[in-house]
Amino acid sequence: MRILVLHGPNLNLLGSREPALYGSDSLASIDTALRQQAVAIGVGLSSFQSNCEGALVDHIHAERDRTDGVLINAAAYTHSSIALRDALLATALPFVEVHLSNTHARESFRHRSLLADKAIGVICGFGPASYRLGLDGLVEALRTRGVV
Ligand code: DQA
To answer: Which of 5, 74, 103, 131 sees the fewest Cβ atoms within 10 Å?
Structure first.
């Protein structure tokens, strides 16, 4: 089983970006922890971050044939990107949406997600642990569906 982790705009600045909201872990440390978790649960995993909507769409297209499921923190594109939603639907890749912060406890424009209604599930508010919980949930759901 191969999992693709996607990180949207400004997540490359994790660690120094608004630490009161997003914590002090860097994106590299989150990716390292996800890789270790993937080894422990026996799945393959690759990560990609971009600040550009089109690059994220292109990456989904490029990886679609070697990906079984997507773990995505689309960051601000969660609330705005029909293109990202369409890319996930066009490739029919099952996905779990994650956020470090509890978006529902923040500004009202963060309450709406253009991805959530098509996701297997959504996890938010647990800081970097949202990714760990999201990966566990995604792999469990894929195994239940019979993806090796
Ligand atoms: C975020 C929440 C989004 O609203 C915001 O635009 C981000 C990060 C999170 O992980 O909490 O960039 O996705």
So the answer is: 103
Which atom from ligand 1 is nearest to the alpha carbon of 102?
11
Residue recorded with tokens 């890319």: 87
Does some domain include residue 70?
yes
Mean pLDDT score of the chain, rounded to an integer?
97
Cα distance between residue 99 and residue 11, in whole Å: 11
Q: Is residue 146 part of a domain?
A: no
Please tell me the distance from the alpha carbon of residue 96 to that of residue 34, in angstroms, as a whole number. Answer: 14
Tokens coding 142: 């894929």
pTM (global) more than 0.90: yes
**Tokens 């949202």 label which residue?**
130
Q: Does the Cβ of 84 fall within 6 Å of ligand 1?
A: no
> What is the domain count for the chain?
1
Residue 100 CA to ligand 1 centre (angstroms): 7
**94-141 pLDDT, tens per residue?**
999 999 999 999 999 999 999 999 999 999 999 999 999 999 999 999
